[in-house]
Write a structure and sequence with these properties.
This protein is mainly alpha-helical and about 290 residues long. It is built from 14 helices and 2 strands; from the N terminus they run H-H-H-H-E-H-H-H-H-H-H-H-H-H-E-H. The protein binds zinc ion (ZN) (2 copies).
Length: about 290
């Protein structure tokens, strides 16, 4: 009973991991029910139907949240690839959290761990070590990966607003779903929240799974990372994953003129308005040093 209550409480308060067996590789089904429900709820489309406005909304929210995840959860919080203000940092942390992939500190801490141990036995989501499905989706359902290891994100854990958002990460997706309901009823919720979020899930997770399996390797990195143009298109630039593992702190992941990196283009645009600055990038010598 205690375990059940603990699993349920984790839906609302992610800091409540004290009772979890530290090294448990088992999947806590109760804890993961909201994630499963996200997928099932997409079937609601058979009740609410479709409209041009709902599809446009779905795509717009997909684009907004893919950008928040790639530019901020990944390049900013995980790699400090550029600088921004505390206000914008929180706004995009909130938009990123509305994609229901847990909080920014959890995400960044696990991602930094991935870069430290890429494709070794320690890597939490290596397809070459632990299988494709595990790297795609099962790894973050395991009890051992629920907690945020703040040791890995001390630099951002000093901001109380980020710690709060990370702890109560459900606030962001619930806010988005509520706003959608007010704006357009259940059709907007199904398309704008559930379908859009599940699409964002799948393309994000493909970077952990497919981008370590399928594609080309321009650089001989110690891991199995690949460049994949289709993934780069779907994820606004993250598919240049071999480039990224070669030079992780770069704000730009498409290194060559034909490697489209939409996130970087938007960041450049934001930098013109002074909203982000000090975008890091490798020198041409580093880019062209094909090893
Ligand atoms: Zn990787
Ligand atoms: Zn990374």
């Amino acid at each position: 009973m205690n375990k059940l209550l603990n699993s349920l409480s984790l839906w609302f308060d992610t800091s409540n991991t004290v009772d979890l067996p530290e090294k448990s590789k088992s999947i806590d089904i109760v804890r993961c029910l909201p994630y499963l429900f996200m997928h099932l709820a997409c079937l609601g489309v058979f009740w609410v139907g479709v409209s041009p406005a709902a599809v446009i909304l779905c795509l717009a929210l997909y684009a907004m949240r893919v950008f928040a995840l790639t530019a901020f959860y990944h390049r900013y919080f995980s790699h400090r690839a550029f600088k921004t203000s505390r206000v914008l940092q929180f706004i995009f942390a909130f938009v990123g959290a509305s994609a229901a992939q847990r909080g920014p500190l959890w995400w960044a801490a696990h991602h930094r761990f991935h870069h430290k141990h890429s494709d070794t036995q320690l890597d939490h989501h290596s397809p070459s070590r632990k299988g494709f499905l595990h790297s795609h989706t099962l790894w973050f359902l395991e009890s051992q990966n629920f907690a945020t290891n703040e040791e890995y994100v001390k630099d951002f854990a000093k901001y109380p607003e980020l710690v709060f958002l990370n702890r109560y990460d459900l606030v962001a997706p619930i806010t988005l779903a509520t706003l959608l309901y007010i704006a357009g009823g259940w059709q907007f919720v199904i398309w704008g929240f559930f379908i859009s979020t599940v699409l964002v899930y799948q393309v994000t997770f493909l970077i952990n799974s497919l981008a370590h399996v399928f594609g080309t390797r321009r650089y001989e990195t110690a891991d199995q990372s690949r460049n994949n143009w289709l993934l780069a298109l779907l994820t606004f630039g993250e598919g240049w994953h071999n480039n990224h593992h070669y030079y992780p702190s770069s704000a730009r992941q498409g290194f060559l003129w034909y490697q489209l990196d939409i996130t970087y283009l938007i960041l450049k645009l934001l930098s013109i308005f002074g909203l982000v600055w000090d975008l890091r990038s490798p020198s041409p010598e580093i880019i062209h040093a094909e090893s």
